[in-house]
Amino acid sequence: MSSTTSGPETSSDPGSNVIRKARSSVWRGVWTDHMGRTGVIMLGFVLFIILIGPLIFPFNASAFGSSASSILQGPSRAHWMGTTELGQDVFRQFLVGGRISLYVGVSATVIAILLGTGIGLVAGYYVGWRDTILMRVTDFFLVLPTLPLIIVLAALFGQSIVVTSLVIGLTSWPQTARIIRSQVLSLRERPLVLRARSLGARDVRIMGLHILPNVAPLIFANLVLVLSGSILAQAALAFLGLGDPVQASWGTMLHNAFNSGAMSEGAWWYVLTPGIGIVVMVLAFSLVGHALDRVMNPLRRGAR
Amino acid sequence: MSVRYLARKMITLAITLYVTVSFNFLLFHVLPGNPVQLLARSGHFDAAARTQLIKLFGLNHSLLVQYFTYLNDMAHGHLGFSYIYREPVTTVLGSAVGNTVLLVGTATVITVIVGVWFGVVAAARANSLTDASITVTSLSLWSMPDFFTGMILIFIFGVWSHVFPVSGIESPGLTTGTFGHVFDIGRHLILPALTLTLVNAAEFSLITRNTLVDVLVEDYIVTARAKGLRRHVIIWRHAVRNALLPVVTATALYVGMILGGAIQVETVFSWPGLGLLTYNAVEQRDYPVLEGSFLLFAIAVIATNFFADLLYQALDARVRET
Question: CA A95 to CA A61: how far, in whole Å?
Fold first, then answer.
């Protein structure tokens, strides 16, 4: 386990076509992996439904039922996935809600990855006091229980989707920072970095040009996992009543279903539709992440 | 484990706890939009009442004085007064802690056993159909939000069939002695504990599998195989022992996650623990209770990590420090 860390020295500068070649082989690796391919197909399906879906399916999301008989109805030709406790169309809410779940997940992930990469890069590159301080902070946030912290922040700062994204993003970076730092620690001792430094390159240039491209695959593999985690966190937050009440995500739909007594009415369509949406979206990202990890983790590839 | 190591760990623990308490102060008393200021500023009070409130919360003092007052309160176990229950926060939390420990404790024990077992089975037949189906099942369960898993179980066992109770910790008006009471709580415990287990066992099975797959190609396993040892002896006696170390660390790290899951599961099943308390505190904006329960969650996770570190030291000679 310990003998593999001093692997073969990398060839000099990573030329752009080398990176491009690596990228296409990663893509092929994911596609030939059974789980990876399943994930990609599921992901394509989900993205198609929530991005294109609202344009093709002619339902009205906010229309209320005209009478008591239109409340909590099972699936029918008029309402493919039944109706809500207010007589709204579940399928239409599902189509719109998915966008919000995805939007919050993606923007939280972008924040977390930027923070985590930046902190990991600086900590790993400038060992010494900067590393010590940054890693102490990282370890502190790593230990804090995430969901309780997110709940507290959302309760204090509000429930708009922007605040939710910020709150999840600002609490999901520590893992990424740790992973990036350990990789940068080994990269900074490689000949190409030493050579660039002896030629007088500035730190920012070395980090951006020589180190960042080499940790990019790692960032990418980590990104997919952070994304699944963010979507789950957003769903939990919305279910606990801390979602945006105006822009209802899948989590908010489940909150409404649960609190309106849809469960005891046996309105399974109202619960299963958004729930399965979350599961399929998260599972698709997890499968792709799993496959990426297999393809890009050289240790595991050797072990197979 | 040397005394010096233990002393150093204790100092780190003390510092972490101090930082956590200060972080809590920052969140609830300093940052803009903090509940104390909001309450004092809200328009529902006349000038006299407002002055009184400001005095009550010590807002007329400087932040530094407020901070030291806060630390002093913490040191004496004063966590404030609940807006809703009209009782000290410590009393409110105290009545809920036991129920959460019962639920999380039961679920964690089952989770580790089930998760490790499935992980070992998957790794022992790495890249077989069994392995693939265990991994896919684990990933699917991992992808389910805890509260959604709970809702599905409610549909199956509470709505479509009435096998288990789906709400609360005991049946109201039950008068059948101590044994009947324990049995009743046990019945109520089944679905919440099953939910937590389903979601988290997946995580453990994936960790165990991946570590074990790496361990199984190591030289001493090849040696054991060459000696002609039986397959299950090699796996359970030689490999699992070493693969279990990351599981110990994982257990500590995932306590935070399991507690997060407990908030959702307690909400779904109305289990009267810290999670349901947190949910109600959020709903009713009962900030002192929210503050207290967050502090308790954080301390629980920090303490678990501390003990896991000690355990790890005791178990693994390779990381033993002096």
Answer: 9
